[in-house]
Specification:
7-stranded mixed sheet, 13 helices, 15% strand, 2 domains, alpha/beta, binds 4'-deoxy-4'-aminopyridoxal-5'-phosphate, globular, 3-stranded antiparallel sheet, Aspartate Aminotransferase, domain 1, Aspartate Aminotransferase, domain 2, 375 residues
Length: 375
Amino acid sequence: MADKPFRLSNRSQGIKASGIRKFFELGLSMKDPIDLSIGQAHFDVPEDVKAAAIDAINDGRNRYTVTQGIPELREKLKDRYASRFGNIDDCETMVTSGVSGGLMLSFMALLDPGDEILIPDPYFVMYRHLATMVGAVAKTYDIYPEFKPSAAAIRERITDKTRLIIINSPSNPTGYALNETEARELAALSDETGIPLISDEIYEDFIYGERHVSPREFTKNCIVLSGASKSMGMPGWRMGWLLGERDLVERMYSLQQFSFVCAPAPLQWAALKGLDQDFSEHREEYRGKRDMVFEGLKDNYRIVKPGGAFYMFPYLPEGVDPESFMAACIKRELLVVPGSACSDRATNFRLCYATTDEKLKRAIEMLNEIAAELK
Ligand code: PMP
C-alpha cells in the first residue's frame, strides 16, 4: 500500500505557493507591521454599495443567477464598453468570479496543453500558475528597464506555438500605464499575427496620466478583463467581468456553468450600484501617495514613476543583494515583495502604497535607512 492515502496530480505539484502570500502570512505573525506587500485598496466599499448588497440579500436575491451574470449588470457593462470601443455588436460580456475567474475561463477556452502564452516579465504571478494549471507554457517577454510592453519585444518571443499574449495596464507590479502609441502597436501586432490579446485592466480606474488606454480600442482581437476588486474596494467579494467576441464568450459561459457556476448573486447587484459611483476621489488620493513615495525614495532608489495602479517597483540600490535587503525590511517589520516573486530577475522589489500616509512616511524612512546601511 502507498504510504500516503492520496497522490497529488502533476498539475498541483507544478504550482508553488505565491511568494506574495508568504509575506501576507509573515505579516500576520508580526505585532505592528507596515504591510506594503498585499495589493488591495485601503478604502472600504461605499455605504450605498454595501446597502445594495444587503438589500439584495434581504430581498431573497440569493439564488443562482444565470451563469453569464444578471442582465442589468451586463447591459450596463456593454454600454460602458460601447462608449469606449464603439460598435461591439458582435461581442458579449459576462460576469466572472473576480478577474481571476475571467483569466481562468479565458485560459481554459483558448489554451491547449503544450500551447504557449506570452506574459510580461515582471508579471502578475497568477498568469504563470494559471498557464501551468491548463498545461500550457508561460513564456515571458522582457519589459525591463522602463516596463513598457513593446510590440518588438513580444514579436521576438512569438513561436508557432504562441496562442495568447497578455497585456496588463496599468500593471501589477510596476504601475506602468500604456500610452496610445504602444497600445496601437500591440493591437497591430495582434492583427498581423492573429494571436489574441488578453488585456487585464483591473487597475483601469487608477490612472494618473490623461486617460486609461486599452489595446481593444485599436483591435477586436482582444479580450478585456476588469472588475470591482480594486476600484470599489471589494476584493473579497469576487466580482469581475469581461468583454470578448460573442462565440468565444459563449464558450466561456459553458466553462463557467461547470466550474464557478455564477459570480456571487447579491454582490452582482452591489457592483451594479457601484458602477454609478464616482471613485475619482480615491484616484486623486492615490496620486498623492504615489508622488509622496516617489519623492521620498528617489534619492536612494531608481524608480520608474508609475502612471497607474497602486504599486511601485523600485530597483535595489547598486550592490545591494536581495536577501540582505529583505532581511533588513523584515527586521523592521516592513513588508514588501521581493522582485523575484514576480519576475525572473531579483533586481527590484514591489511596494503597494495603498495605505495611510502615516505608514508610508515610516516606510520611506525605513527604506532610506536600509539603503544607507547596505550600500
Ligand atoms: N489581475 C491583476 C493584474 C491583479 O493584480 C489581480 C489582483 N491582485 C487580479 C487580476 C485578480 O483580481 P480579482 O480579485 O478580481 O480576482
